[in-house]
């Protein structure tokens, strides 16, 4: 039988428990004594420290939870202060004009004349006969005789023009526009051609050169006047070629949303071609973009400028909103607008309805069908409801507004390659459309969703390289910081539960709760976040990559309902496709069934795109219609027209100042 042993009045089995209790009491007493010894005026921080010590010693779990709450509170406060800024619009700086001296051309450079063979002195000092090349007399041309005038001549020009002007006349030291003491007929052709540049959305004053006034001048003064005319006209021609080829505005100085390298232009070669040309106006016009869309824009500009501004203008009362079966006094204006702006096909199909209409206010079933057909043609939701978007399409832009949009489209056309490619994808953000074209194939056009105004899609072009099936979504740093960080501050395990994978740069998976997200936001720590493939994946079942620094690509989306909207600016900048499998099949040269079968395998796989297929992620508020010969007009969803107009205004002011300084 086990004996009941007592030690100092306690059971031996209870000794350990009583000992620990005694120790706790002893520590509490010591701490209390310490507090009392320092008086009741101790600082709150010391009291908090004592409390923290109590918690760590006697309630570690509660202490851990309290620390976690404090950590999250700190993260919430820090998260509110950290944001990744979107690209921004810049204070546009126009191209600088500078004064270029033509003095380097004022002297004729001739090679030093030497014997054909080198002089040799033999060891025996015997004279050796040498062949001497006869020195031909230097013949001075009219240009050479006028060279002294260049010593004091300077022009205010674009730097590229100044360099090319000196380079050309060093290689071709002769007059191009002057002969027999006067301007040539070719010079007059050039002046007239540059005076008509308004038809190409350029400013004739930028290229104006007055004819040489030589009457009553002595010989030296006449040579100086003719030389100035020669140089000014060549400089004007080079400026025109530069503007026609690359545009007057550098888009990359408008905003950080533009990523469009300016075209290199061979100005020396261009002036040489003009000198040889039999038809100067034709040669000059050949420097404009020689493609179908630019020709259509040019024709539209000519048509608009020839029209009376107020001719046939139809007005629909602001705020008009009309549904089926309702009546409105604006009904006759709605019908008149369709009759004026509808396509010939639409007017033919609905000819009976239009001829039978008797100016009634009733929105009848026949008129509903007419409106739906117009909405479909205008790429609006064909619901028959006449609201703001339908009215804008019906009334259209004023003549002046259309001219401005066409001229801006012509300027933007000079920023992209002249040859867009046989196979290509052309995305127009303002139209919310993407179109694949290839020789011998029907165009594949579809609705797209582009970036929100706060997350605008960039304007650039690249090459399509890869189609990815069942893609992961690699979350961009900006979305992690701006959108996920506040959620993580409230719920550290948010990413783990929401179907995201969090890894270190070396690929080791970690819990989202274990990451110092503020350090990630401050770029003191690197972490990768991606969403697993699946139905809820933001990229849907397929994405089409054209690797670029903006992290923009085309992809599927689970948010199909957004394609039913007329204004489709909802993404973070990427291009969401209404028919992603159709686009993937087109760029791969495969069938949609093939693409669907690859997706059905459920594997995350990539397939290389063969051949050159450029993609243009563009922005045009006026652009030729896919079907037909007309020009379609679109709303300026990002206000980029306004910023381009400001840049053009600054450019014209700088050029006027340069002209006045000459």
UniProtKB/TrEMBL annotation:
Domain Peptidoglycan binding-like: 361-394
Protein name according to UniProt: Murein L,D-transpeptidase
Name of a matching Pfam family: YkuD
Domain L,D-transpeptidase scaffold: 165-301
Pathway terms, separated by semicolons: Cell wall biogenesis; peptidoglycan biosynthesis
Gene Ontology terms describing biological process: cell wall organization; peptidoglycan biosynthetic process; regulation of cell shape
Transmembrane segments: none
Highest taxon above the source species: Bacteria
Keywords: Cell shape, Cell wall biogenesis/degradation, Peptidoglycan synthesis, Transferase
Record-linked Gene3D superfamilies: L,D-transpeptidase catalytic domain-like (2.40.440.10), PGBD-like superfamily/PGBD (1.10.101.10)
Stretches assigned to the L,D-TPase catalytic domain: 424-585
Family: Belongs to the YkuD family.
Listed GO MF terms: carboxypeptidase activity; transferase activity
CDD domains, per database record: YkuD_like
InterPro entries: LD-transpeptidase_YkuD-like, LD_TPept_cat_dom, LD_TPept_scaffold_dom, Peptidoglycan-bd-like, PGBD-like_sf, PGBDSf, Transpep_catalytic_dom
């Amino acid at each position: 039988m086990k004996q009941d042993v007592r030690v100092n009045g306690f059971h031996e089995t209870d000794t350990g428990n009583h000992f620990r209790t005694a120790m706790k009491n002893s520590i509490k007493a010591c701490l209390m004594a310490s507090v009392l010894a320092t008086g009741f005026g101790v600082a709150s921080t010391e009291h908090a420290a004592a409390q923290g010590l109590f918690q760590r010693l006697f309630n570690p779990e509660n202490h851990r939870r309290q620390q976690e709450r404090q950590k999250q509170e700190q993260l919430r406060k820090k998260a509110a202060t950290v944001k990744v800024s979107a690209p921004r619009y810049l204070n546009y700086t126009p191209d600088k004009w500078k004064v270029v001296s033509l003095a380097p051309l004022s002297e004729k450079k001739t090679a030093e004349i030497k014997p054909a063979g080198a002089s040799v002195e033999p060891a025996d000092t015997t004279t050796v006969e040498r062949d001497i090349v006869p020195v031909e007399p230097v013949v001075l041309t009219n240009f050479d005789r006028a060279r002294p005038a260049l010593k004091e001549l300077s022009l205010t020009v674009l730097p590229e023009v100044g360099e090319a002007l000196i380079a050309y006349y060093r290689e071709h030291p002769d007059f191009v526009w002057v002969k027999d003491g006067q301007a040539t007929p070719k010079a007059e052709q050039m002046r007239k051609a540059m005076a008509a540049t308004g038809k190409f959305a350029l400013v004739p004053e930028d290229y104006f050169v007055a004819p040489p006034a030589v009457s009553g001048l002595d010989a030296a003064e006449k040579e100086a006047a003719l030389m100035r005319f020669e140089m000014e006209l060549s400089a004007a021609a080079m400026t025109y070629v530069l503007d026609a080829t690359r545009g007057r505005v550098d888009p990359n100085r408008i905003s950080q949303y533009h990523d469009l390298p300016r075209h290199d232009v061979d100005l020396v070669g261009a002036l040489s071609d003009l000198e040889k040309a039999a038809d100067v106006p034709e040669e000059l016009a050949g420097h404009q973009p020689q493609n179908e869309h630019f020709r259509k824009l040019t024709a539209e500009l000519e048509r608009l400028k020839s029209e009376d501004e107020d001719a046939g203008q139809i007005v629909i009362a602001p705020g008009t909103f009309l549904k089926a079966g309702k009546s409105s006094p604006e009904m006759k204006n709605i019908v008149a607008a369709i009759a004026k702006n509808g396509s010939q096909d639409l007017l033919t199909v609905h000819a009976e309805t239009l001829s039978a209409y008797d100016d009634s206010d009733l929105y009848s079933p026949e008129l509903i069908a007419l409106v739906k057909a117009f909405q479909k043609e205008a790429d609006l939701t064909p619901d028959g409801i006449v609201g703001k978007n339908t009215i804008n399409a019906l009334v259209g832009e004023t003549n002046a507004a259309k001219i401005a949009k066409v001229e801006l489209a012509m300027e933007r056309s000079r920023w992209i390659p002249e040859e867009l490619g046989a196979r290509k994808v052309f995305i127009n953000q303002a139209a919310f459309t993407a179109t694949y074209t290839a020789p011998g194939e029907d165009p594949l056009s579809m609705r797209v969703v582009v970036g929100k105004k706060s997350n605008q899609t960039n304007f650039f072009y690249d090459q399509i390289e890869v189609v990815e099936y069942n893609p992961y979504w690699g979350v961009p740093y900006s979305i992690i910081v701006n959108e996920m960080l506040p959620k993580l501050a409230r719920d550290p395990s948010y990413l783990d539960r929401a179907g995201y994978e969090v890894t270190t740069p070396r690929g080791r998976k970690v819990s989202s709760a274990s990451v110092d997200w503020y350090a990630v936001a401050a770029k003191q720590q690197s972490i990768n976040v991606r969403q697993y493939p699946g139905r809820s994946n933001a990229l849907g079942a397929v994405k089409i990559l054209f690797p670029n620094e903006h992290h923009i690509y085309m992809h599927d989306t689970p948010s199909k309902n957004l394609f039913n909207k007329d204004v489709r600016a909802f993404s973070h900048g990427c291009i969401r496709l209404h028919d992603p499998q159709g686009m993937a099949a087109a760029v791969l040269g495969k069938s949609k069934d093939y693409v669907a079968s690859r997706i059905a395998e459920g594997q995350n796989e990539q397939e290389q795109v063969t051949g050159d297929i450029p993609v243009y992620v563009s922005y045009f508020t006026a652009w030729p219609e896919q079907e037909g010969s007309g020009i379609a007009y679109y709303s300026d969803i990002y206000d980029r027209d306004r910023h381009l107009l400001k840049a053009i205004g600054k450019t014209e002011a700088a050029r006027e100042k340069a002209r006045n300084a000459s």
